[in-house]
Design goal:
291 residues, mainly alpha, Growth Hormone, Chain: A, 13 helices, transmembrane helix, transmembrane, transmembrane transporter activity
């Protein structure tokens, strides 16, 4: 479960979106897609929002949070003293991981459609296959982090991605839209590596904070980091005067984002087992406290 919630959830959502795109593009062909097809996809997105609302209403608080006896920790503890350094490092890790996602899985529809020239039908299938691969990669990386540790797992994938992601980007752009199978294989490997790198990030962030700060610390770190990472595709497009310039800009941004990710993870401590240690310490305290 360590990788399923973050990267696995994104992969599942992308797979459903790709499936919807394949069905809608088959029904609304040619100019009809520009007139009505995109509207159908828009309303499909609204349905996913309703699903999210349903899930949020059914999710219960953790026993650790419910059993917390001390007064709530002030929000300012996130940005003062040692908490400030932890927050900055967490945001850097999330930004590097988020940028890898947005520059690969997030930018893939544009890369395949506008740069490589893959036809719409084949593009939908490639995106669907890539999304399914992401789910498997997230689960695998999460399990690996349970055995090797969060830090070692993310650092290992990050170091591989420094070379692999820009190389795969160049490969996809060079092959061309007429070689669908080769493009699909390269895309699958690219999204597997990029999403595996940040798959344990959600549990890593949770383990960085005590119960009183966990929800706020994780939310601020994740959302600010992914907000910064989400700016990268826009910068790639702005700095690419021609479509032919996109692969080189994309490769450079991937190197930069992955380097930030690697350096931040290198500076961070291992967190595996932190929640269990906190739970054990609380149990010991409860047992030794007089009634």
């Amino acid at each position: 479960m360590s990788g399923l919630i973050g990267a696995g959830g994104a992969g599942l959502g992308a797979a459903l979106a790709s499936l919807a795109y394949i069905v809608v593009s088959a029904i609304f062909t040619g100019p009809a897609f520009d007139q009505w097809g995109w509207r159908v996809l828009f309303f499909c997105g609204l349905l996913s929002a309703l699903l999210s609302l349903f899930v949020l209403r059914k999710v219960e608080e953790s026993p650790e949070f419910e059993g917390k006896r001390q007064a709530p920790v002030p929000f300012r503890e996130l940005v003062r003293g040692r908490g400030k350094k932890i927050l900055a490092l967490n945001i850097a890790v999330a930004a590097g991981g988020g940028a890898q996602y947005y520059l690969t899985s997030g930018y893939l529809p544009t890369l395949l459609g506008e740069v490589v020239g893959v036809p719409a039908g084949a593009r939908g299938i490639i995106l669907l296959v890539s999304s399914v691969v992401v789910i498997g990669a997230a689960i695998g990386a999460g399990e690996l982090s349970e055995r090797l540790g969060r830090r070692r797992t993310m650092l290992g994938f990050g170091l591989v991605n420094l070379v692999a992601l820009p190389s795969l980007t160049w490969g996809i752009a060079s092959v061309g839209g007429g070689h669908g199978v080769v493009v699909a294989l390269l895309c699958a490997v690219m999204v597997m590596l990029s999403n595996a790198a940040y798959a344990p990030l959600m549990i890593f962030l949770n383990e960085r904070y005590p119960t009183g700060l966990r929800a706020r610390g994780t939310a601020v770190s994740w959302n600010l980091g992914f907000m910064l990472g989400g700016l990268m595709p826009t910068l790639v497009s702005l700095l690419s005067p021609e479509l032919s310039d996109v692969p080189s800009r994309l490769a450079l941004f991937l190197v930069g984002a992955t380097l930030v990710f690697v350096v931040a993870i290198w500076a961070a401590p291992e967190t595996r087992g932190a929640l269990d240690r906190e739970r054990h310490a609380r149990t010991v305290t409860d047992e030794t406290t007089p009634a």
